[in-house]
Specification:
Radius of gyration: 14 Å
Largest sheet: none
Number of domains: 1
Number of strands: 0
Shape: flat
Distance between the termini: 41 Å
Strand content: under 5%
Structural class: mainly alpha
Number of helices: 4
Length: about 60
């Protein structure tokens, strides 16, 4: 997807993910951080946002 790559470049996603990887506590997590890619399917995005909402609500309870 050429358009998506353009946005990744404009947003300097590679630099953001490298910085995120530097903040992790182990190499496995750093690898996962460096390999993150934006979702392109709306259903996938909604599903992941719901997971984030659920995690936030759970964390707020404790």
């Amino acid at each position: 997807m050429k358009t998506l790559h353009k946005y990744e470049t404009t947003l300097e996603l590679d630099k953001v993910l490298t910085r995120l990887a530097e903040l992790t506590c182990c190499e496995d997590a750093a690898d996962m951080a460096r390999n993150l890619r934006p979702l392109t399917d709306l259903q996938d995005v909604r599903s992941e946002l719901n997971k984030t909402d659920d995690a936030f609500i759970l964390a707020a309870k404790f």
